[in-house]
């Protein structure tokens, strides 16, 4: 399932990159994003109907993970669209078409960090602590073990 997820992530990243560079076919790209998210949500359902799973464990159910990925990518799309609108309103010059600004705010590292992180809402910059809080991680691990 991971290679298929990476394909969907890269498609959305490419579409957002094209939208950020002010292409004339914005509506087509937005339509392609919608189709990609719809396919991402439906693909594991179709697959699970074709190949039924022996153990119905929610943790290992690909449908759950793909729906979560779809929600994360929708958040990524909406945050970037709001950012594009903010830049467009801030100055009417061709500021948001410059490659340096695109690379600064729209890069794969931030996207994959967001996909792996345990949050659903995408932010342009995530808050980070200076050190790892071991007590916090231990509490979360205990909650996960208790939940299973």
From TrEMBL:
GO process annotations (BP): triglyceride biosynthetic process
Superkingdom as given in the UniProt entry: Eukaryota
Main EC class the enzyme belongs to: transferase
Task: Supply the alphabetized keyword list.
Answer: Acyltransferase, Endoplasmic reticulum, Membrane, Transferase, Transmembrane, Transmembrane helix
In which pathway does this enzyme or protein participate? Lipid metabolism
Q: Does the UniProt entry include the keyword Membrane?
A: yes
Task: Describe its membrane topology.
Answer: Multi-pass membrane protein
Q: Where in the cell is it found?
A: Endoplasmic reticulum membrane
What's the Enzyme Commission number for this chain? 2.3.1.20
Membrane-spanning parts: 31-51, 63-83
Cellular component per GO, a single term: endoplasmic reticulum membrane
Molecular function terms in GO for this entry?
A: diacylglycerol O-acyltransferase activity
Q: Which PANTHER family match?
A: DIACYLGLYCEROL O-ACYLTRANSFERASE 1, STEROL O-ACYLTRANSFERASE
* UniProt protein name: diacylglycerol O-acyltransferase
Q: What organism is listed for this UniProt entry?
A: Henneguya salminicola (Myxosporean)
């Amino acid at each position: 399932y991971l290679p298929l997820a990476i394909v969907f992530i890269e498609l959305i990243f490419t579409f957002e990159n094209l939208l950020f560079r002010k292409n004339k076919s914005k509506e087509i790209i937005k339509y392609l994003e919608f189709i990609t998210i719809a396919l991402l949500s439906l693909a594991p359902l179709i697959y699970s109907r074709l190949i039924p799973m022996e153990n119905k464990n929610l943790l290992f159910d690909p449908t759950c993970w793909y729906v979560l990925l779809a929600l994360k990518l929708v958040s990524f799309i909406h945050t970037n669209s709001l950012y594009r609108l903010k830049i467009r309103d801030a100055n009417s010059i061709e500021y948001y078409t410059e490659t340096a600004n695109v690379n600064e705010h729209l890069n794969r590292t931030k996207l994959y960090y967001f996909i792996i992180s345990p949050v659903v809402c995408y932010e342009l910059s995530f808050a980070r602590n200076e050190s790892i809080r071991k007590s916090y991680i231990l509490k979360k691990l205990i909650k996960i073990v208790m939940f299973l």
